[in-house]
Amino acid sequence: MAVNFAYTMQACCITSLSRFKEWAQYFVAALTFDLQIREKEEDMKILEYIRAKDAREQEIAFEKERIRHEKEMETVRLRTMQVRSENFKAQLEGTTSFLTYLNYGMPATSRKYFMLRVSSGLANI
Prior knowledge:
Blueprint: H1 2-105, H2 108-120
């Protein structure tokens, strides 16, 4: 009976060992699959982060370009106003100097002749 018992124990251990090996293989396969899924999820998160970062950088670049364009337009507007102001001042100075010349520097006979031309519409001022 002792021999029979030893044989039974050996058979039971072999069966348990083969089941343990099967379970270990299943467990390793499950862990490997879980690791693969986690790696894919991590890769997807990294890709999403890179896409979001690129989108933010592009948005910042567009905003900087818009601000630069607005500054250029403001500079052009201010330069145009400055040129207009300078032209207006030059016209005023020219008119003022002409009127000063007309009143004080022009001989009286020429002044009368000029005033006649202005009143008749023949003078080009």
